[in-house]
Specification:
Length: 258
């Protein structure tokens, strides 16, 4: 496998055990700001931009989940951290599961936010590849106009997300869509994850049905579910305080476990 990580840009705040907060598609590290302010006294929070997003470079190849996991590993190595708690939102949750599978010894804890272990169904894969083709043809605005209302019901947050998405580059979005379409089924990996894992799900998530999170939490030996009735796909922006509480619980479990 020829895998060449890129050097991710990141922001760091707080002190304590290292916790990576990683954004989903097609966003950047700023989505964690409301949560980071309240958690900074309990953990050293490291918020990277995934390849191609925010300030991080892209290498113009398909963003396979394994590749995203390698980027995160390279960052963790660069920071000389032996183990981290990795919190991944949506696409970064897919990458976090790939990381857990490839590098179990580098994990102290895991957070899976608005994500799933299931791969795309054949229909979803076709639809995603069609979206990739349309994005290539029509540009970033196609995603920036269509996606925010699927991410959240809150009009203010939709506006904020539109701005974040408009900063993306077309090729980056296409690379991510293709990477998500080809991702593996992570279900067989779940029972091998032995670290405390919080699964955070919004009951109003329009992209990932909450049942997927319920099943995932059941399959994890040290997993538990935090279901947020009023949240959609963006609980860290919609209900930041509840996400802070859930991550605080994770920090506490990881502290007892190590
Ligand atoms: C994300 O929010 O990262 C993606 O929308 C997830 C997906 O499309 O499967």
């Amino acid at each position: 496998m020829n895998i060449k990580p890129v050097e991710l840009e990141y922001e760091e705040i707080g002190q304590g055990m290292p916790m990576l907060l990683v954004h989903g598609f097609p966003l950047d590290r700023t989505i964690w700001n409301p949560v980071a302010q309240d958690l900074k006294d309990e953990a050293r929070l490291i918020m990277p931009d995934l390849r191609g997003y925010g300030a991080s470079p892209d290498a113009n190849e398909i963003h396979s989940m394994r590749l995203l996991a390698e980027d995160l590993l390279a960052l963790i190595d660069r920071l000389k951290l032996e183990k981290v708690t990795l919190v991944g939102h949506s696409m970064a949750g897919y990458a976090a599961l790939a990381f857990a599978h490839a590098y179990p010894n580098r994990l102290a804890g895991l957070g899976l936010v608005a994500t799933q272990a299931d791969p795309d169904t054949p229909e979803r894969r076709q639809a995603r590849l069609l979206t990739a083709r349309e994005t290539k043809r029509r540009g970033v605005k196609y995603i920036a106009d269509g996606m925010p209302s699927k991410l959240t019901h809150d009009p203010e947050i939709q506006k904020q997300l539109h701005e974040v998405i408009m900063k993306c580059r077309t090729a980056v979005l296409v690379n991510s869509l293709k990477g998500m379409a080809e991702r593996s089924d992570a279900n067989p990996w779940l029972e091998m994850i032995s670290v405390p894992t919080v699964v955070i799900a919004g009951a109003r998530d329009q992209l990932i049905p909450v049942e997927r999170s319920q099943t995932m939490a059941q399959m994890l030996s040290k997993g538990w579910l935090v279901e947020i009735p009023e949240a959609g796909h963006m609980p860290m922006l919609e209900t930041p305080q509840l996400v802070v509480d859930a991550l605080r619980q994770l920090i506490c479990h990881v502290g007892k476990h190590i």
